[in-house]
């Protein structure tokens, strides 16, 4: 089916599918281990789908602002790859899923001491934050923001101060992961743990709507070229690496199930956001703050499954 007729059909059916998915929000709840995230509306659900000509189909609470949380890790990984190359990044983080929770310490001690299994778990993303070029943490954060603003096509994109502070003041486990990385020389002598964590908390707190996420995902769907400006923002190889991690580790330890049920590269965050894409066709942003027991938006996954099954979007 052409994008145009598919999007026409989507525009017609989306409100009905969205309300059906909204009904499962009562089976989940917003994350509260970062206290500020606990205030999000539990029954909210919104989605934006954008195609390569900039046509947008949207439904539900897509005006809701939320922080990217782990969705940001896809783009800090890409920026680190652009700064350090594949070798520089894969010296510090591995390429394998863990099967454990995103903040687990378990495998850090078991295999290749200290080296995080992949860049999308917390330990791996903290290591990636240390690889972003910049002399000071503020400079690293500015470079991350500049890159995200370009991808989202919004110069006003910034981080949410309240969420940043809320995470920074309660992140005992992330602190322990970071000190563990330092002890194992994954973070170097020059890397001040608190400074690297500051970069990490700030990029997790970058505030967006579904439209920003869909716009950023569209660049990935088009292998690094922004179809609306024609500019190449990311080398194709780095998009390939990022999308592969999205398939194998993007939905935490539910990535296998998501690959079977939905079949698209995706990355979720504990704020309830999901970024996904249909290769060569659409960028998609979803928000649904109520999470399932794996930490993914319960209604967001439900909705994406309905769409993927109906339109036969699975890559596999
Ligand atoms: O570090 C944390 O716990 C949050 N800033 C992000 C966690 C998240 O979204 C899930 N991570 N893979």
Structure description:
GO terms for molecular function: glutaminase activity. It catalyses: L-glutamine + H2O = L-glutamate + NH4(+). Substrate binds at residues 70, 122, 167, 174, 200, 252, 270. This protein is 47% helix and 9% strand. With 316 residues, it is of the alpha+beta class. The protein folds into 2 domains: 3-69 and 208-309, 3-Layer(aba) Sandwich (Beta-lactamase); 70-204, Probable Glutaminase Ybgj, Chain: A, domain 2. The protein has a 5-stranded antiparallel beta sheet. A hairpin with a 4-residue loop joins strand 5 and strand 6. Helix 4 packs across helix 8 (193-204), helix 7 packs across helix 8 and helix 10 (236-249) packs across helix 11. It is globular, with a radius of gyration of 18 Å. The mean pLDDT is 96. Residues 69-70, 102-103, 120, 122, 167, 174, 204, 252, 269-270, 295 line the site of 6-diazenyl-5-OXO-L-norleucine.
The overall number of domains is: 2
Assigned CATH class of the largest domain: Alpha Beta
Strand share of the residues? 5-15%
Unreliable spans are none
User: Can you identify the CATH superfamily of the largest domain?
Assistant: DD-peptidase/beta-lactamase superfamily
> What is the CATH third-level topology name of the largest domain?
Beta-lactamase
The Cα radius of gyration reads: 18 Å
Helices, by number, come to: 12
CATH architecture of the largest domain: 3-Layer(aba) Sandwich
| 3D shape | globular
Q: Provide mean pLDDT, rounded.
A: 96
Pfam families: Glutaminase
Keywords: Acetylation, Hydrolase
Family: Belongs to the glutaminase family.
Catalytic activity: L-glutamine + H2O = L-glutamate + NH4(+)
